[in-house]
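Case study 2.
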Amino acid sequence: MAIELTVFNVILLVMSAISGAGAFCVGVYVMNRVPAEWICDYDEKPTEEMLTKTRFKGKLLYTAGTVLSGILFAGIFVFWGLSVYTVLYMLITFVMIMTVLSDGKYCIIPDQFVVILAVMSLCAAYYDYFGRQYIIKQWWSPLIAGLGIGILIIAVNFLTMLIAKKEGMGFGDVKLFAALGFAVGIPDIVMALFISVISAFLIIVFTVVINAVRKKETENYIPFGPSICIGVFSALVLHQPLMYLVGLYLSLLER
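Prediction:
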């Protein structure tokens, strides 16, 4: 459903990019004002920094965030055009941006965001199912994808705790992946998981290299929430080109 290169679409593309940049700024504003309890564990007391309204600040944060968010929103419009899909995916991306901010800094995924994403994901999935069926082909697909990925991560965590005696991913990651899994359904959830794992690996390598250059010790826990968002965003927004590449790969194997 890629857009045609017309003057009208170029204007909408620029507006989408501007909307993405604005959405990031709004997301930072919201994250600086949500209750401090949202961004800390249930059994923890908020720190003094959490109680302020300047939790997220800095030129680098705003510059990188607005540029990246602008690109993401523009990408959504490029692949889905002027449609309800674009609006739904932009809203989901907006909440994912705030989730990435929270998990990236505090290693916490607020339950409130998970609930919102679950509702949005179900709306997007069943809008597609009762409409074009670009992504969701069966009514049970979103439910199986969301619940299935949640159970899979819990099982992996259980095995990790048995073998390595430590937790692999937090329960917040389980809830986040399950909520976003509703949007992509089966079989796209497999693609989302694959991209998430690759993204996590690249983020870990990048973090280790940067910390080595700075002569700084790398923390034992690196948030998986951003990687989940990258995986689901890719599987959702880039569904058609990714499915084309998968089909091309499978056809090469048959030769």
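The chain has a mean pLDDT of 91.
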